[in-house]
Design goal:
The structure is a homodimer. Chain A is mainly alpha-helical. Chain A is built from seven helices and three strands. Chain A is elongated. The interface between A and B is large, with 78 and 78 residues. The structure holds a DNA duplex.
Amino acid sequence: MDGPVTTAVPARMSRLPTWLISQTALHASRLVADGMAALGARGYHYRVLAGLAEFGPVSQAALSRHTGIDVSDIVATVNELTGSAAVERAADPTDRRRNIITITPAGRRQLDELDGKMAEIQDALLAPLTPGERAELTRLLTTLLGHHSASGQDRYSGLG
Amino acid sequence: MDGPVTTAVPARMSRLPTWLISQTALHASRLVADGMAALGARGYHYRVLAGLAEFGPVSQAALSRHTGIDVSDIVATVNELTGSAAVERAADPTDRRRNIITITPAGRRQLDELDGKMAEIQDALLAPLTPGERAELTRLLTTLLGHHSASGQDRYSGLG
DNA sequence: CTAATTTCAGTCAAACTGACATAC
DNA sequence: CGTATGTCAGTTCGACTGAAATTA
């Protein structure tokens, strides 16, 4: 319970963007995990609820594509969310392979709560940055992500 | 083997800095993991070798503090590195609780190789950014990390 | 007695793999 | 037939927990 008592970090590491990003992501993940846990949820719950709220009732496979969560993990997450009555799983009459997942009013209320918590979390994470810096960071990361998602069908090709 | 075929992502998510950072870190981790694997190593190996190269022969506990790797994981990592003769584990005559870990010449050669690979990886990750943008991203992340490491002894206090 | 160090066994969330049955 | 879908079991990596033994 004493946090990472990090002394001096090797310069080789602290200069590496990959290291900086991973470490920052670690702090971000902790903030998200703990913030969601405080409301009885976890990251996957928020992502699935957000996907359903924005893209309407969809199949689990479509939900997987929209959220970036693997289909097999969608199964478990939807199981949990049906358990708390936040979503409903129904057979698709037009394609009997599919389950159509729908967010319930209770699910929307939970999503609203989680949205509020998420806003707090962003603020906690970006606390030391000015509004301009926050925007710039967001812009740079969006650029990176766009690049790696576009060329990311064949993961990394120039490093063998 | 088909990569993340992500369709449209919920705006709720794609605007969140925590999401952007986590996703970017995912790409970064894959680049690092695969780059290290190409040389028969993994992330922890690089971090331990870098720590030893920069801070000299130290105990495992000190190595843990310098690298941010948990002591229990240091044990396993040092085991693996002794297996490949990259480091040596010796009893500390002045404190019989301690093991003193020393990097070997072979370990230094491996670290040099890994350093080269790491440089490639940084370039692959930051490909779409200009040199100025790369510097700015590094600066912003360093600011964030400094803030959260400093106030990070009692992990997040304002979110309950 | 308290505290630091090493070690082991195990947990956790997120991401991912492989296999299988079913339906298109 | 090949492909999409849902499900299950299991794995991986990094981070972390809890406990035990030893020594300071």
